[in-house]
Amino acid sequence: MSKKEFYYVSLSDGDASLRVRFLFANTSNFIGSDTPCYILQFIISGSLRICGKTYFKGQCVLSSSSTNNHDYAPSADCFCIGAAFDGMHSDKLMEDLKLKQSNPPVSVSVYDIEELEKIYIELSDLYPDVESVLTDPPQILSQITAKSYFYRMLHSLENQKEMQIETKTRKLLVAAEEYMRNNFNKSVTIDDTAKFLSIDRRSLYNLFIKHSGISPKQYLNNIKISRASDLLLNTDKNISEIAEIMGYKDPFQFSSFFKKQTGLSPKKFRSTL
After folding, report:
1. CATH number at residue 200
2. pTM, rounded to two decimals
3. Interval 34-43 mean pLDDT
4. Which of 80, 203, 218, 236 has a CB 3.0–4.6 Å from the CB of 199, allowing a cystine?
């Protein structure tokens, strides 16, 4: 990034419900004021050590002014974009983001670094191109504009949270499908699958409906029918042998299941196709 000035901008609501300061720095000037506040630091380049732990490009670090004042060591190429904020609504905001101020700091991955760089460029263009501005410049941003920039920053965290939830959900679905494929012939039930994933039956149902469009029971039945059809069409095994492979002790029970799902008995299915 070509510009590396330190901008200190105070912006506040009339009732001080949320006071925001945008901070941009490649030095220890990023350390907050003595006033307790949340500090979000998006690391655009380099690394940053706080309280003995090192954070790198692509991470956002949530800390406090008091934490930063004790052990704060940016690398020579470190550049951060961020905001310090406090006020009556700040705790609720952190709660909505499912983040808590802590010591040592906590970190999350950044969703869109390019968006943060864009915010930096847009904001820095509003201020004089000087090496350092350590006092509050004139109020250039309106409250609405300031909040817009601030929430654009937070949006990168919100999107990351959504991605993490989506990734976790997808992993659960893949695990459920694999479990069913590996155990379909062992009388596995939907309750067994839910227990394997450590979730309840309703959560498993919602998982499949949302991502597969069918219920877990229908997914399991599809696996069974697919395997049974393959055995009927591509082997010369009799119905009793196939039923045993499918996990049915009673061939009539297997035939009844197959006919219910396909509309044809196993024998008719084999002879027709």
Report:
1. 1.10.10.60
2. 0.49
3. 73
4. 203
